[in-house]
Amino acid sequence: MRTVFVALIVAAVFFGSAEAQDQTARQNQLRQQVMQRLLQNVRAQTGMTDEHFERYREIARRSMASRNEIQRRERELWRGLEGQMRPGVAANEDRVVALIDSLIAVPAQQIQLARGEQEEYAEFLTPVQRAQLVLIHRRFQNNIQQIMQRRLPNRPGQGSREP
After folding, report:
1. How far apart are CA 127 and CA 133, in angstroms?
2. How confident is the model at residue 9 (pLDDT cuts 50, 70, 90)?
3. What value does the mean pLDDT take over residues 92-113?
């Protein structure tokens, strides 16, 4: 009987793990498809040359990696602040100040990243092409936010992490 129980646990872990891997693979595939479509839209709407488009892709790839890192750090900061503010646990005031200061700095980091992108784009794109990129990226971000809001509605008792 014990062997059957262990076998069931192993099977549940294995199939759960395989299912999680399948879901991750599907998410990665969907992410790649979305990015490919975004790049196609950028190419079609801006009329970039092949050389300019390759330069754009490289800058966009680097910027996305930096943006993802900023967002990852921001999530860590929010988790840290939430951890400090647990009911019944005395918060470390120095740590709270450091977390708040770091959270306040996040928008400045995002703005600096956007400025750097624009400076690089200005080396080879016209102002109109740069404006087209800004609009395409803004629409893309708005679409992503709308999708996330539809998928993750606010549930009672689960406020957002942000003020």
Report:
1. 10
2. low
3. 97
Alpha-carbon distance of 41 to 38, in angstroms, equals 5
Distance CA(150)–CA(152), nearest Å, equals 6
Cα Rg of the chain (Å, integer): 22
Separation of alpha carbons 53 and 148, rounded Å? 29
This prediction's pTM: 0.69
Q: Which two tokens stand for residue 161?
A: 């992490």
Residue 49 contacts residue 129 (beta carbons within 8 Å):
no
The pLDDT of residue 3: 58
Structure tokens at 81: 């602040």
Question: Is residue 42 within 8 Å of residue 133, measured between CB atoms?
Answer: yes
- The C-alpha angle with vertex 51 and arms to 62 and 54, in degrees rounded to 5, equals 25
